[in-house]
Write a structure and sequence with these properties.
Blueprint (H helix, E strand, L loop, with lengths): L4 E4 L5 H12 L3 H10 L9 E6 L2 E14 L4 E12 L8 H15 L4 E5 L11 E2 L5 E2 L9 E5 L10 E4 L2 H6 L1
Parallel strand pairs: 4-5, 7-9
Antiparallel strand pairs: 1-2, 2-3, 3-4, 3-9, 5-8, 6-8
Helix pairs in contact: 1-2
């Protein structure tokens, strides 16, 4: 594990964050997604985190507030997306540090759960399970094992299921 520091993003980081995402994913959708989400009123700067090694940004994670519509209610949650680490720094535990730091900050801000559309062999190591375990559905039609969720507070997802409401910005990025 290399030495890293995690902090919230600043406006000076915006271009580097976009570049890190573009390089990590090999395409521009993730960088554009972050720029578009940053313009929304729901965006929370404290939940857009960068990982630094010797003052160089080598990773980024964004947790964005979204909702789950249940039969009787609308439940606030966070979407983890996107998360990126520069290719030469991948597989060194940086993503895990970003996720765990994000969980701490999310709890501090009062969030009780997180959903992620991601690799089923990666995210379960951090406690994510299939969202369908809680009868939570997604609007994309993706395989069940890639839509996952985690309770930051025990029993926070036990509301009988519902449909995740992603902002339109996510719909164009998937």
């Amino acid at each position: 594990m290399i030495d890293i520091t995690v902090r919230k993003e600043t406006p000076d980081d915006f271009e580097v964050i976009k570049e890190v995402n573009n390089l990590a994913f090999g395409q521009k959708q993730e960088g554009e997604l972050i720029e578009n989400l940053r313009k929304k009123a729901e965006f929370i700067t404290e939940l857009s985190l960068v990982a630094l090694n010797k003052k160089k940004i080598i990773g980024h994670i964004l947790f964005f507030p979204i909702t789950i519509t249940t039969r009787n209610d609308v439940v606030l949650t966070l979407s983890l997306a996107p998360m990126s680490v520069l290719p030469e720094y991948q597989n060194k535990g940086i993503g895990g540090v970003l996720i765990q730091t994000g969980f701490v900050k999310a709890r501090e801000l009062g969030f009780e759960s997180v959903v992620v559309l991601g690799h089923p062999e990666y995210y379960p190591r951090f406690g994510f399970r299939k969202a369908s375990d809680w009868k939570i559905k997604e609007p994309f039609g993706v395989p069940d094992e890639v839509m996952m969720a985690i309770e930051l507070n025990e029993r926070s997802l036990e509301f009988g299921g519902g449909l995740i409401d992603y902002p339109k910005e996510y719909l164009t990025a998937v």
